[in-house]
Amino acid sequence: MKTRAEISQETYEQALKLAQHLPNDLAAELKEEAQARFEFEQQAVEKSQKFTKKRPLVIVAILVLALVAAVAVGIYAQSGRFQIVQKGEQLHQAFEVQSALESKEQKNSHYILSLQDRLRANPNDGDLWYELGQAYALNNDFNAAIICFDNAQKVLGKKAAILGAMATADYYENGQNLSENAKAWLAESLKLDAKESASLLLLATDAYRNKDYAGAVSYWRRVLDSDNEALDRRAVIQSIAEAQAKLKAQR
């Protein structure tokens, strides 16, 4: 089984190989990100190794704590409350097992219920409406997502991110087709913020799907110019590389 350090080294080398096939500006950005991730992993591995050297002391401490716990349990078992607590722990363990087996959709459904409860207490929280819309979109309930985004907009006013989210939900609700509503929302979103990531990513996706690879590359490049820290820049760079390869094949 490969160590974390070996996996990190392989990932870094793969990124460098990919960079060789990209234009200079994209290659430089990919190399920079790969280097940053590689250095972070190296630091994490070094910290782990330092901890390993101190493990004998840690093991002694664990043994002492285990002995103390065993004595405490022996005393506690003499009271009638031990069985009650034991049953409570068993229920908790059963809940943890059930949670682990739940699908992402089921967990997201629980999250939706939680957000709904919070909105009942504060229906004028625009951020919660926006968050609920995102949760519905993750469950592929795009119609409900649009309603939530619209409610968020009524409270917060017109925001580029909300308009982009509405257009994206509408796009998938309509079988990956840009409706007139979606086009209007995208235009308004980019008028408010020319670098709005969700809007640009949607336009890039639609262009790529319709074999407009040059258009897709243009939109993805604009996404890279945005200041969105949550953006998976490596995925965008790879998408650009794929679109450029298809563009060359068309010629």
Number of helices: 12
How does the helix and strand content classify structurally?
mainly alpha
Shape: globular
The percent range for helix content is over 70%
The fraction of residues in strands falls at under 5%
The profile of the biggest β sheet is: none
How would you state the average pLDDT, rounded? Answer: 77
Radius of gyration from the alpha-carbon trace, in angstroms: 26 Å
Elements, N to C (H/E):
HHHHHHHHHHHH
What's the total count of β strands? 0
Low-confidence runs (pLDDT<50, min 5 residues)?
A: 54-101
Distance between the termini: 45 Å
Keywords: Membrane, Repeat, TPR repeat, Transmembrane, Transmembrane helix
Protein name: Cytochrome C biogenesis protein
Domain Cytochrome c-type biogenesis protein H TPR: 83-225
Transmembrane segments: 57-77
Q: In words, what does this structure look like?
A:
The chain contains twelve helices and no strands. The chain is mainly alpha-helical and 251 residues long. The two termini are 45 Å apart.
Short description:
The chain has 12 helices and no strands. By secondary structure, it is mainly α.
Q: Which key phrases capture this entry?
A:
251 residues, single chain, mainly alpha
Task: Write the topology of this structure.
Elements: H1 4-19, H2 24-53, H3 55-76, H4 81-101, H5 104-121, H6 126-138, H7 142-156, H8 160-173, H9 180-192, H10 197-209, H11 213-224, H12 233-250
